[in-house]
Amino acid sequence: MDVIKFVIWVAAAYFIGNISPSIILGKLKGVDIKKEGSGNAGTTNALRVLGKKAAVITLVIDIGKGALAVYLGSRFGNDEIAMACALAVFCGHIWPCLYSFKGGKGVATAFGALLAVNWLMAFLVLFVVAAGVLLSQRMSVGSLLGAVSFPLICWLIERDFIYIGSLMAFIVLIKHIPNIKRLIKGEEPKLFSKKEEKNEK
């Protein structure tokens, strides 16, 4: 494998992950989304703080950047580079150096990356997430169920991705620890609740 090519495309994927539509849209409205609502630079907090239009834009761009990073790694590199780009864009979204390493939880970006790796796996995970959200009315529940099911789906369909997929799932679970605590206490707000979650990251 060409090490220089690997480093270039993985670094590019990380910085693609740094693109944060929720932060940018917040600044256009004079709002620092990292200091409002949950403080999380993702779709759910964009919905609560900035509204539905901003949330849709955030979701589309976060998914798109995940898919783009993997596509570029595959198009100009190889499968190994593409899979490394999936992890890199995911980490770039969660820990963006351009925003003091404070980003989102990576769920939408992970879905976009997975969509480019294997669309069938992506839609199976989406089905699990959607079922969790519809039944609980909480995005966090859907995200947690999606993360738990992710390694199993990788093992069944795309075993080459199981190690990176499992690592991404583990990180998503870690990022949702505040949500898990609130779920246990019965304090996790529903999806369209405007209740602020100051401790969520």
Automatic annotation (TrEMBL):
One record GO biological process: phospholipid biosynthetic process
Chief location: membrane
Pathway: Lipid metabolism; phospholipid metabolism
Keyword Lyase attached: no
Catalysis: reaction(s): an acyl phosphate + sn-glycerol 3-phosphate = a 1-acyl-sn-glycero-3-phosphate + phosphate
Pfam family name, one: G3P_acyltransf
Gene Ontology terms, MF aspect: acyl-phosphate glycerol-3-phosphate acyltransferase activity
EC id: 2.3.1.275
Keyword annotations: Acyltransferase, Cell membrane, Lipid biosynthesis, Lipid metabolism, Membrane, Phospholipid biosynthesis, Phospholipid metabolism, Transferase, Transmembrane, Transmembrane helix
Transmembrane segments: 6-25, 54-74, 80-101, 113-135, 147-174
Annotated signal peptide: none
Cell compartments where the protein resides: Cell membrane
UniProt superkingdom: Bacteria
Assembly: Probably interacts with PlsX.
PANTHER family, per the entry: GLYCEROL-3-PHOSPHATE ACYLTRANSFERASE-RELATED, INNER MEMBRANE PROTEIN YGIH
Homology family: Belongs to the PlsY family.
Annotated protein name in UniProt: Glycerol-3-phosphate acyltransferase
Source organism (scientific name): Candidatus Fimisoma avicola
The organism's taxonomic lineage, starting at the top: Bacteria, Bacillati, Bacillota, Clostridia, Eubacteriales
